[in-house]
Amino acid sequence: MTKFSVIIPVYNVEDYLRKCLDSVVSQTYQNYEAIIVCDKCSDNSEKIVDEYVKKHKKFTKIYAEKTGLSKARNLGVEASSGEYIIFLDGDDFFEETLLETLNTKLKDKPDLIRFQIQDVIDGKTIKHSEVGFPTTDGVNAFNKIFKYHYIENAWSYCYNTNYYKKNKFKFMENCIAEDYGLIPLVIAKAKKVKSLEFIGYNYVQRKNSLMTNTDYSKKIKKMEDMLMQSAFLKSKLKDIPNKELIIAFINNSLIYYSTRLEYKDFKKYRKILKENKCFSHLNSGGIKTKIRNFLIKKNAYFFYHCIAR
């Protein structure tokens, strides 16, 4: 049986795609399938995908026009046949021993394995060396992961396919920040989660990507999408004991992002957040977090930007 299904959504990433796909081809552990979900591209990305699919038997292509990242990932999961699923964005790349390292940690058949990330910015790497932990339940795992640099990013984890599909997990489609609306739930519901100190994923931060786009209308959409997803998450967490820190993370993320908006919109969404009781259950954290939360509650937007960040 295939051990790993690597799911790779592709859309207009021709300058990064070969390095991405080569990082899969060069894995020291070869029991995998690579499922590339290719949207209609205006660059040469699809030609590159076709080249790799033709050359490498482990690669398959799903063509789905106007999918968006969420739907592309969902389609990849539906098509997967491996015991474990890993997501890889088309502009990022693996370390060559990622699959081999993960394979040595599967004896107890965890629902979820966390590995670590390093940023790649203008060719330079910034490591995020996190402390790993042995197998524990999902809520206890989240309490530890909460301290990591990256928390809800889908490409930070290896998922047991049976666990993932049995729970019918899906990314909310047509959303920005779709990881935020799913991954905390995936972690919380898990019975077995472990974390490795191994840095296996390279997150390439490029200009004009979805996460760095400066189009203000997209910032508003992200805020709306986060509100919708936070309501969904909280409804799904009702029956999970000791979920307080997860809800604190959901609320903190909403509040933090609201400060990224222009003042008039900040005021609008602060009112919505208060109505949704997002300030009633926050992670107190350190002094910086306490200052930030106090200033936001008091609508001290300008002081926040000058002092608390």
Task: Please explain how this structure is put together.
The protein is of the alpha/beta class and about 300 residues long. It folds into two domains: about 200 residues, Alpha-Beta Complex (Spore Coat Polysaccharide Biosynthesis Protein SpsA, Chain A); about 90 residues, no CATH class. It contains twelve helices and ten strands. Strands 1, 2, 3, 4, 5, 6, 7, 8, 9 and 10 form a ten-stranded mixed sheet that branches. Strand 2, helix 2 and strand 3 form a beta-alpha-beta unit. Helix 5 crosses helix 7 and helix 8 runs antiparallel to helix 9. It is globular, with a radius of gyration of 20 Å.
Write the layout of secondary structure elements.
Blueprint: E1 4-10, H1 14-25, E2 32-38, H2 45-55, E3 59-63, H3 68-79, E4 84-87, E5 93-94, H4 98-103, E6 112-121, E7 124-127, E8 133-136, H5 138-145, E9 157-160, H6 161-166, H7 183-189, E10 193-204, H8 216-236, H9 244-258, H10 263-275, H11 287-297, H12 301-308
Parallel strand pairs: 1-2, 1-4, 2-3, 6-10
Antiparallel strand pairs: 4-9, 5-10, 6-7, 6-9, 8-10
Helix pairs in contact: 1-2, 5-7, 8-9, 11-12
